[in-house]
Amino acid sequence: MSPERADGSRRARIVGWSLALIGSALLLLTGWLLVRLVESGPLPPFLDETIPPPAKAQAAPKPSNLLRLAGSGSNLPLTRELAAVYVSKRPWLRVRVHESIGSSGGVRATLERAIEVGLISRGLQPAEQAQGVVSIPYARVAVVLAANPSVPVRGVTREDLLDLYAGRREYWADGSPVVLLKREPGDSSHLAVYAAVPELEAVDAEAWTADRGRRLFHDRAMQEALISTPGAVGLFDQGLATIQSLPIVVLEFEGHRPNEDAVRSGSYPIYKDLSFVIPAEEPDPLAHEFISFVFSAEGQRVIRESGYVPLEPPARSSFAHLHAGPGPEQLDTPTPAAGDDTSDDGTSSEDQ
């Protein structure tokens, strides 16, 4: 390469690098000026702490003709029957009975105003009583030892019950194996049996710890297991068996059938009360109207025909003036404690 050409190439490289450096400097200067301009201007709204955050979108208000109920699975079949009759003569109303969320879930949803009426199958707990809800017992149901039709017995004694849960009775009289079905600790049916057979509580706890029997966690699972499992027995609600015409066997206890007269007299001692829960302050007017219907003669007829025992309204409640009319002598009930599928007829059903 000639000296002149080499010198020209060198000068070109120097010019190129110079232009590149100048361009980079200009780019950096432009960026710095933009940053300074932004910093000197007003803060964007999401960074300016003096500007309050936008209000959260509010849920649309509940229609005044809609009533929502949810809670214990023990209440659902009877509540649906009552809701269907209630709506049948009030076609402008909508009653939605949600899937089971348990008694505790029903109380919480009522406190949060996510529903208008909670459904519970146990008493209110002290912490719940303090939060501003009222419990209104409306029906009593016998808790029974139910069995698959293959089970060759039709009644049990206290000793039989304890033997089943303690694992001392593993076979029925015909040699077929016993399949014990049990619910989770704190289940309302088990609590009802503990009140009548206190010795069962410790035996039941030991059976759970020892993983004796099959564990089930809701009423539907219990009823399906009772229907489909030869040799199976488990605690169940008499009302659920009656209202759904389930193909299971209800066993006598100490020689007594769990009928209304036996429950009223106490000769059948295992039962639990079903209750509504509403806010102590400003309950929904439609909730009040529905509960009034439940305590009317028509509502209590539905309760009785569904296999439950109707209760009188609590003595010191806004429903105390309501009575079922002529019928069997009513049971004494505790006063309420403060704090404890959609069809064309307007009702909806969502199961556990």
From TrEMBL:
Compositionally biased spans, kind Acidic residues: 341-352
Domain of life, source organism: Bacteria
Disordered as annotated region, ranges: 314-352
Domain PBP: residue ranges: 60-298
InterPro entries, per the entry: PBP_domain, Phosphate_ABC_transporter
SUPFAM superfamilies documented for this protein: Periplasmic binding protein-like II
A Pfam match: PBP_like_2
Membrane-crossing segments per the record: 12-35
Signal peptide: none
Keyword entries, A-Z: Membrane, Signal, Transmembrane, Transmembrane helix
Stored PANTHER family: PERIPLASMIC PHOSPHATE BINDING COMPONENT OF PHOSPHATE ABC TRANSPORTER, PHOSPHATE-BINDING PROTEIN PSTS
Protein's name according to its UniProt entry: Phosphate ABC transporter, periplasmic phosphate-binding protein PstS
Species in which this protein is naturally found: Enhygromyxa salina
